[in-house]
Each structure stands twice: as structure tokens, then as C-alpha cells.
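Contributing new records

If you add data, match the layout below exactly. Sequence lines come first and carry their own label; structure lines follow with theirs. Keep one chain per record. Anything else will be rejected by the validation script.
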Amino acid sequence: MIVTEKILEDGLSRRGGFNLAQLKALLPRWEFHAGDNGWPMKGWRRRIVGADVSKEKIDRFLALKDKHLRPAPKTGNLFEQPKRDRFWPDDLELEPGSPEKAHMQMIGADY
């Protein structure tokens, strides 16, 4: 199977890159730097487009997409944390009508 730009684009992660396992699945061994770096040499993308590669290698390349990333947050914001008040324990039960309960309702806390 011939490697195309479309195949490479389909393999891009949701953050716009590739992981090392993907590249090792697709590229020949000589494309990689020796030593600790381990990433392919400059120009690998230009050299691989148009190359004849087995379908199994391409399928593995595509299957490894996003495997290096943490699961996407449900909120859509990587840095958003659940709303909590650090001064009140999570298991605190406040009496209805107490000043603490009124204060927590006033500031919009879920207590």
C-alpha cells in the first residue's frame, strides 16, 4: 500500500502530532537516530510519502493514534478542576438554617 499525506493526517493525534510508537510501526529502522533520542531524522515525512508499506504497518500506525495522550476531559478544558471549597471537607453535612449553610448557599457552593 502506498503511504499518502491523507494516511499521515489520519494518524495525527487530537493535539496535532505523532507518538514514537506510531512512527516505529510505520518507518524503516534506518530512519531513526541512534542513542537516547530515538526520534526519526529530519525529513522522514517527505521520504515516507509515496513509499510502499504493508497494510498491516499502516493499520498499526493508525491504531496507535492518541495512545500517548491522557483521556480527553469531559469538560473540554485540560486545566479545569471540579468546583470545591478547600476549607470545607467533602463529607461535611450542614444543618438546614445554620449560618454555615446560609453562607455556602450565598457563595454558590454545592453544600
